[in-house]
Structures are given as structure tokens and as C-alpha cells.
Write a structure and sequence with these properties.
mainly beta; 22-stranded antiparallel β-barrel; 5-stranded mixed β-sheet; 52% strand
């Protein structure tokens, strides 16, 4: 079986055989190896030490944070909240408003990384089952199946089953009530040609902010995988299931952080005053259930050619919760009360004993000031004592079903390595929003399970087809890559309440070209350069907004250029890359006007998406690994990035002048919001016998936020910060009774308990608070 013709298998072999160091059960460093694959574009793979720097409770996203160009920020050290997760690379972002980086699991598309119906890699993989992560910075792998790969791709690779039969049990206990149980059974070789495993984990944590009823994470996760070899055919199957309930973290302003740097403004004591209790942490929830399964058929047609076909299915369901401090009065187009569709004719915060809406005393002008101005309508002091406070529990329901297939064919003849393939997917996503009455807001947020208003219900269909072809031509020490790809994407929306099906919207790309060159300068040094045209289709979320002028919206595109060098000697390996990116047709959401500075819970399908110009980025990335001795290894990376807006914000400026009633925003040449110009990582790891430990430090430079004054063009600024992590562990072969070995691992993130602001929300006004010092201890037994 010629499995090394398979791109994923080859990548994994390189990552494992040539990672910076590898250690056997005695934890001795055996060799220094490369930090990237020999390709014509910038890329990195994680090192084994990066896995050990994180607790097993942490999400798999956190392991790539030390790679050059990348910043991973999650609400807590355990990745306990998707709402507050942000990922940036070379000025591109994944956050609540932007999805500009591609993500795959074993080459299978993740279905998008957005909050509403998407799922990042942590929904599909436990950390114990992660083999490596392949990162293509900027110029992504031409075969990557993603509609979001403007600025690069992440491919999370799961471990293959072991040849040996074994069972592993692990228990983790950590700060913030963190507990985790993990069990995995490896079948070893069965039926003479098959290896398989099945695993299950249960993870529970509390939010680090506050105590008591401060919410947290409850996560059940299961995985199964098998690999069967039949002469020239290898069949791989994998199934993952994830069921999680998360309480969100809230973003805060710079002023709020300066006042209380350890509080995200959410509360954990029920007061009975809805204006305060809308910030009750347990009312801010994310519930998600994800099932992803695939089969991969690898057929070695000849010693020089391989065909790979991978059908897959993904089901995503769940909801997002909020607790608005009022009840709405929904009406249809004729002004009659309704329970489905329509609009809100008005909201009220207090009712009489019969449930009839009450208005505040006409002479009362008092207002509660926190979390924002309530006005008289939500202030209990503006009502008599007989008035009863009311509030809602708002659910947004998400459901998505994806059925797809990837097919790749690679062949070598003469000096040509040719690769071609397709990706096809049908996706159906349902989204609806309903409002439930809180039974008694004076007591708690228990709500009536029957909604009093279903605000909207829509179905979005997306058909995706991609083709690609690439030829790598070898001329001795020089290799030339030429490639082309194209995306054909079709979207359609069905409005259930109005029984309207939209016209089909084409979000096709042009034929996108790529080219690269790799030159082996010496046995230890190679030079590379590449150019690629990347693309992100219009998301179906754009169709959610009735005011979006779809005929005026163009898909997002990016042109990426890399120049770099890789060096590998006996003890030292390094990569240096300079890059230039032109990002065009950036799409952003323009919210409708609001009379309150608080959350607009009734926004529904209002607002619109528009193209707001482009971004130009330049920078360079360095990464190096050096083995000082047989026990000590040093890893470092440095990133310098400059990202600027290429045009004025069209929602704020017309012909260079500020639009009336518009606030200051970006102008051509301004630095991009929340894009640090410098990031620096230094880590040291020690292995001796059965003992290991490591220390890692990462510096993230200051970032610029929103504009505070149009005349001076002043902007808010977020301070830079350094976070230091520590890990230690001990492995021992015991061979006592049923046990064969044990391992104890201890990890501490943010050792100095640094207070800082981490990921932003994309608007430059609010940020999530960085997680405090967090420790976790894991005991693992193998038998």
C-alpha cells in the first residue's frame, strides 16, 4: 500500500518523524527536526511540547497559539466558551463577526467557524486524540476544503489507532471547579488488517469570574476511529460527537476594565430587578450538539498514483440564550397581535396583577445607571409597589445538516507531481428565534417552555462545488508549482412565516491562480516563494438581513505573496518568511440605529451587510528550535505585522466627509482594529529520564481600537501583555497488575496572574478579559 502518496498521511509522517523533538516513554529528546514542511508556501506544524504546555481540559485550539503569526484567545484557560473565542493570523480573524480563516479536521471541512451554526475544531477533537495541526499561513494549501480561507488554513489531524491493544483512563482536577474524566480503548490489530479506538470524556468547569451561580461548561464528547488495509486500498472511518452547554463571557470596555479588571459585568446573584438580572451569567448561554462522521478510501492505483475519496456528514444543532429585561408586544403587518413573525410594537418591563402592561409614572424621570441607562420604563422606582416586574428568555435556535464529498487524485510521472480534486457539499441551515415568558422575574429566570413569540424562522440552502489542479515540476534542486482552483457557490433563503423563497444567489469565484517555487540551496537550506489568490464566499448569514442589497455585495478575496527560507542542521532548525497581502471586498454588518447604549435584543433580521473596502498587510515571521543539550530544547517565534485599511468606511464617510449622525471610523491608511504589530514567543523544555518540565512566555504587543474623536483621529489603545505558562510531568512504566504505565501532568497558565485584555469583538470598543492564573493536574493510567 503506497500510503505516502496521500497528502495527509505524508504531512502527518513529516510532523511526527521530523518534529522539533520526539520523546519515547523515557522522555529523552532523540532528535531535532524541522518546524515546517518543505513546500513553496509558509507553513508550520505544532511541536510535541506545545501539546504538553496545555492541560487536557484545554481546547485543541490553544496548542497553536505559540506558532508564528497566530493569536488564540478564549474566555478562559480551558476554552470554555465559543462566544468569546477569537483567532487572528496575519491580520485575518475568526470572531463573532468575521470568519476569514479556513479550518478542517483530517482534511474534512468544519462547516464554518461562526457562532451561529458553525463549529470550530474543539467541537470535533479531544486533545488526547490530536496528532498534530498543520498551519498554512497566508497562502493556503490548494486542496483545502474551506469557504473561509482568505488568510490561511488550519488542519487538525486526529491520531491513528495503535497497533497495540490498551486502555487509558485519565482524571483531571483544576482551578475553577474543573474536572474531567477521559477513557480510551485501543483494540490493537483485529481481523488481521484493522486497528480502531473509541474514547469518551466528560468535562465540567465554572466561569472564573465570580462564584456560586456564575455558570460554566458541561461537555460530553466521544470519538471513534478505525483504519483497515486491503492490499491497495486503505479505508479510514471516524465519528465524533460533542454535546456542550456553555455560559458565556462578556466583553468589556477599556473604562470598565480599568475600573474592575477581574469582572466582565455579568452577575451571579439574582436580584429580582430585571434591568440588573439581564446580566445574570447563567442566562447567557451557548448550547451545541455536533456529530461529524466520514469515510476515507485511499486507493493506490499504482506505485506512483493515489486516489482518495472522502464522503462525510455533519449535523449541528443548538441554541443561544439571552434574558431581556422586558416582554415584547408582537404584531403582524396590520397591527394585530401575533405569535409568529411580525414586529415588536413595544416593550414593557412591569405589569399589573392580571398581566396587563404598565407605564411608568409620568412624573418619574429616574433611571438606573448600570449596566446602562434603564430609563423610567425599567426602573422599579417609577412604579407603585403593586407592579410586577416581567422579563423574557430569548432563544435563538440553530440547526445545520451538511452532506459532502472530497476527492483527490495525485500522480507522479517524470519530473511532474500532479494533483487534482473536487469538493462538493450540500448544506441546509435552519435558524429561528423565540421569546419565552419568565414565570416570575422576582424569583428566578425559570421560563414557560411554550414561546409567546417566534420572531422569525428561516432556512438557508448552500450548494458548494470546488475544483482544483496543481502541477509541481522538479528541475533538480528547483521545484516549480503552478495551480488553479475555482469555487461555485449558490445560496437560497426560505422565509417560513412569509412563505417566500429568495432568488438563488451565486457567490462564485473567478478561476484563482497560484504559483510557487522551492529551491534547495544546500543540504540544510531551502528558499521558497509563492503567490495565491484566495477567496471567501458570501455567507448565508448575509441573507438573514432583509436590508442587505445582495446585488451590490461582492465575495471577499485576498492575494497573498510569501518569500522565505528554511534551515535545518543537526541541532538547529528555523524558518523565516516575509509576506504581503491585499484583502479586498471585506464584508461587515451594519446594525440599525438604536436609542439605547445597551443590547438591542429585538434586532431580529434588521440591519444589513455591505462591502467596506480592503486591507493591506505586510510583515515577517520567524520561528526557530534549538537543542542545547540532549535534555534541553529552546523554541522561539517572532511576528511583525502591519495591517492598514485601503479605503474609508463607506458607512461613515461619503466623498471624504463624515456622514451626518455617523460616528468616526476607519480611513484609508489607518491601522486595522485589534491587530497587534508584534508577537514574540520563547519557550524552554527539559526532558530527563521520566521527568519533564517546560516554561513558555508569549508577548502580544499593543493594539489600536475604535476612533474616539473625528477631529483629532484619536483612538483607544489596548496595552501589550506577556503571559507565562509552566508545565511539568512524570511518566513511569509500572507493569504492576493490570497497569502498564502512569503519567502525572501539571500545567499552569498565566503564572504571574497578569491582568490583560485578550481578544476583541471586531468593533474596537469592547474586549474579553484574559484568563487569570489557572492550574490543572492530570493523572493518567494505562492498562
Amino acid at each position: 500500500m503506497y500510503i505516502l502518496k496521500n497528502k495527509s498521511a505524508l504531512s502527518l509522517a513529516i510532523a511526527l518523524a521530523f518534529s522539533t523533538y520526539s520523546h519515547a516513554n523515557n522522555n529523552e529528546i532523540e532528535e531535532v527536526t524541522v518546524v515546517a514542511k518543505p513546500t513553496s508556501y509558509a507553513n508550520n506544524v505544532i511541536e510535541p511540547a506545545m501539546l504538553e504546555q496545555q492541560s487536557s481540559v484545554s481546547s485543541v485550539l490553544s496548542v497553536i497559539d505559540n506558532l508564528p503569526g497566530i493569536s488564540i484567545n478564549e474566555g478562559d484557560a480551558f476554552g470554555g466558551d465559543d462566544w468569546s473565542t477569537t483567532i487572528t493570523m496575519r491580520g485575518f480573524s475568526i470572531d463573532g463577526n468575521q470568519q476569514q480563516l479556513g479550518m478542517t479536521i483530517d482534511g474534512i471541512p468544519n462547516g464554518g467557524s461562526n457562532y451561529g451554526g458553525g463549529a470550530k475544531a474543539n467541537r470535533y477533537l479531544d486533545s488526547e486524540n490530536l496528532a498534530t495541526v498543520e498551519v498554512g499561513q497566508g497562502t493556503s494549501d490548494i486542496a483545502s476544503a474551506s469557504l473561509e480561507a482568505l488568510g490561511g488554513t488550519f488542519n487538525f489531524v486526529s491520531k491513528d489507532p495503535s497497533l497495540d491493544k490498551s486502555t487509558t483512563f485519565a482524571y483531571t482536577n483544576g482551578d475553577h471547579d474543573a474536572t474531567r474524566y477521559y477513557i480510551k480503548h485501543e483494540t490493537g490489530t483485529i481481523f488481521d488488517n484493522t486497528q480502531a479506538y473509541v474514547s469518551y470524556s466528560q468535562t465540567d468547569t465554572s466561569r472564573w469570574v465570580g462564584d456560586g451561580s456564575n455558570g460554566g461548561k458541561d461537555n460530553q464528547h466521544a470519538e471513534a476511529k478505525f483504519v483497515s488495509n486491503f492490499d491497495a486500498v486503505t479505508v479510514t472511518g471516524r465519528l465524533s460527537y460533542d454535546d456542550v452547554s456553555e455560559t458565556n463571557y462578556n466583553s468589556v470596555s477599556l473604562e470598565q476594565f480599568a475600573q474592575t479588571p477581574d469582572w466582565d459585568q455579568l452577575t451571579w446573584n439574582w436580584t429580582g430587578t430585571p434591568h440588573f438580572d439581564q446580566m445574570f451569567a447563567e442566562g447567557w448561554g451557548t448550547l451545541r450538539e455536533n456529530t461529524l462522521g466520514y469515510l476515507k478510501f485511499e486507493y493506490a492505483i499504482s506505485p506512483s498514483s493515489l486516489l482518495t475519496i472522502s464522503p462525510y456528514y455533519h449535523k449541528n444543532s443548538g441554541r443561544g440564550d439571552w434574558i431581556p429585561p422586558y416582554l415584547t408586544s408582537p404584531v403582524d403587518d396590520e397591527g394585530n397581535p401575533t405569535t409568529e413573525g411580525g414586529s415588536n410594537a413595544g416593550s414593557y418591563g412591569f405589569a399589573d396583577s392580571d398581566g396587563n402592561p404598565l407605564a411608568p409614572d409620568a412624573n418619574c424621570t429616574e433611571s438606573l445607571s448600570w449596566p446602562w441607562a434603564s430609563g423610567p420604563g425599567l426602573n422599579p422606582a417609577c412604579y407603585d409597589d403593586s407592579a410586577t416586574p416581567v422579563m423574557s428568555y430569548r432563544h435563538t435556535h440553530y440547526n445545520k445538516n451538511r452532506l459532502g464529498l472530497t476527492a483527490d487524485y495525485s500522480v507522479t510521472f517524470g519530473m511532474h507531481d500532479i494533483e487534482a480534486g473536487i469538493w462538493y457539499e450540500q448544506s441546509e441551515r435552519d435558524e429561528s428565534r423565540d421569546w419565552h415568558k419568565v414565570i416570575d422575574a422576582r424569583v428566578y429566570h425559570h421560563f414557560d417552555s411554550t414561546p409567546y413569540w417566534t420572531q422569525y424562522k428561516n432556512t438557508f440552502d448552500t450548494d458548494t462545488f470546488k475544483w482544483y489542479i496543481q502541477d509541481s515540476v522538479a528541475f533538480g534542486d528547483f521545484t516549480l508549482n503552478l495551480g488553479a482552483k475555482q469555487y461555485l457557490v449558490e445560496l437560497q433563503k426560505y422565509d417560513h412565516f412569509n412563505d417566500i423563497t429568495s432568488d438563488k444567489i451565486n457567490s462564485d469565484s473567478d478561476v484563482l491562480f497560484s504559483a510557487g517555487a522551492l529551491y534547495q540551496l544546500s543540504s540544510s537550506t531551502e528558499l521558497f516563494t509563492s503567490y495565491s489568490e484566495n477567496f471567501a464566499a458570501i455567507k448565508d448569514g448575509v441573507l438573514e438581513r432583509d436590508s442587505s442589497a445582495l446585488t451590490d455585495i461582492e465575495p471577499e478575496t485576498a492575494e497573498n505573496i510569501d518569500f522565505g527560507v528554511r534551515y535545518q542542521a543537526d541541532r538547529l532548525s528555523l524558518t523565516a518568511t516575509a509576506y504581503s497581502i491585499e484583502f479586498e471586498n471585506r464584508i461587515t454588518f451594519i446594525a440599525p440605529g438604536s436609542d439605547t447604549s445597551g443590547i438591542d435584543y429585538t434586532i431580529g433580521t434588521n440591519g444589513s451587510y455591505i462591502n467596506v473596502g480592503g486591507i493591506e498587510s505586510q510583515g515577517f515571521e520567524l520561528s526557530a528550535s534549538y537543542m542545547l543539550t540532549n535534555e534541553w530544547n529552546i523554541y522561539t517565534s517572532y511576528t511583525n505585522n502591519s495591517s492598514e485599511y485601503a479605503s474609508d468606511d463607506p458607512s461613515s464617510y461619503a466623498n471624504g466627509e463624515l456622514i451626518a449622525d455617523a460616528g468616526p471610523s476607519f480611513r484609508a491608511g489607518d491601522d486595522v482594529i485589534d491587530a497587534p504589530s508584534d508577537m514574540f514567543v520563547l519557550s524552554m523544555d527539559y526532558y530527563s529520564g521520566d521527568f519533564r518540565f517546560g516554561v513558555s512566555a508569549k508577548y502580544t504587543g499593543e493594539r489600536l481600537g475604535a476612533w474616539t474623536d473625528e477631529q483629532t483621529r484619536a483612538r483607544s489603545e489596548v496595552d501589550g501583555y506577556t503571559v507565562i505558562d509552566f508545565n511539568a510531568g512524570y511518566y513511569a512504566e509500572v507493569n504492576a497488575g493490570a497497569f502498564t504505565s502512569i503519567d502525572i501532568a501539571f500545567a499552569v497558565t498565566n503564572v504571574t496572574d497578569k491582568q490583560y485584555l485578550s481578544g476583541g469583538t471586531g468593533n474596537g470598543s469592547t474586549y474579553f478579559i484574559g484568563a487569570p492564573r489557572t492550574a490543572a493536574l492530570t493523572f493518567t493510567a494505562n492498562f
